[in-house]
Amino acid sequence: MTMNNKMPKIYVAGHRGMVGSAIVRQLIANGHDPAQIVGRTHAELDLTDQAAVRAFFATEKPDQVYLAAAKVGGIHANNTYPAEFIYDNLMVQANVIDAAFRNGVKKLLFLGSSCIYPKLAPQPMPENALLTGFLEPTNEPYAVAKIAGIKICESYNRQYQKDHGIDYRSVMPTNLYGPGDNYHPENSHVIPALIRRFHEAKIAQAPTVSIWGSGKPYREFLFVDDMASASVHVMNLDKAIYDEHTSPMQSHINVGYGSDITILEVAHAIGSVVGYSGEIVFDSTKPDGAPRKLIDSGLLKRLGWQAKINIETGLKLAYADFLNQIR
């Protein structure tokens, strides 16, 4: 028997994105045969097209699926395109998970987002905070779609696990950054947006960089390769162990760094990495958002995984990636 026949055939949905490409890197680093990893670009396969997704699964017949494909963006993008954020994500998730089931995929991992938790959830946010309060209004459509993704996995498990042996799991990451990030000036998240802003200020020799808010809110950041490592870890957990620590009605697992820092600290760290020597000022007339967003990653730690890449190391790698992208 060849190596290819021994290894599961794995479909990584969103393999060109920040998280999907990191999962591919992690699988290969773990010794997985690249020939047994399947990916399709959006041009090759529109995941919102149910017929196309079903045809793809019927042809490729993967053994495992990492569902990392999603329409993502920062506050501005979520506010501007709420219809696309809820529709595209709901369609992608429903199409991929259902097609996986119809074509005999036994193991699937769905990647969500910490924005699924209520705006006023306890800090740090435990898994059981889900559906206990109102969501943050600015990204509610995206959050609702991600909650639906968790519940689709749970529902298929509840209905089909016993007779069909499927095992569909979900992980909820905190704020991610790193290679493959989106550095768009308007539609990106805080770290890539600040990396771009500080770099452009350095090039222009601007005397100051102004940042929205007071700088006081705390945020948790996780390097994307750590997220990929956690995803593969959770996918490969023994089912008895996974089931022991979750339930059919609450099966998702948080993935975080384990501690948070202020936006002020993040800004100064990025300024230092980029080499910006001007002054950093905060515009307190602009909104801060939630005072703190830290997830409780205690369950994943008990299951044998912990983040390794600290913010200083991660920011250096992220800035190197940004320089590669603009070249």
Description of the structure:
The chain is an alpha/beta fold. It has one domain (7-322): Rossmann fold, CATH 3.40.50.720. It contains twelve helices and 13 strands. It has a six-stranded parallel sheet with strand order 2-1-3-4-5-10, sandwiched between helices. The chain has a three-stranded mixed sheet with strand order 11-8-13. Helix 6 (140-164) links the parallel strand 4 (107-111) and strand 5 (167-173). Helix 2 (18-29) packs across helix 8, helix 3 runs parallel beside helix 5 and helix 7 (190-204) crosses helix 10 (263-274). The termini are far apart. The model has no long low-confidence stretch (mean pLDDT 95). It comes from Jezberella montanilacus. The record marks 113, 115 as: Important for catalytic activity. One of its GO terms (biological process) is 'de novo' GDP-L-fucose biosynthetic process. Belongs to the NAD(P)-dependent epimerase/dehydratase family. Fucose synthase subfamily. It catalyses: GDP-beta-L-fucose + NADP(+) = GDP-4-dehydro-alpha-D-rhamnose + NADPH + H(+).
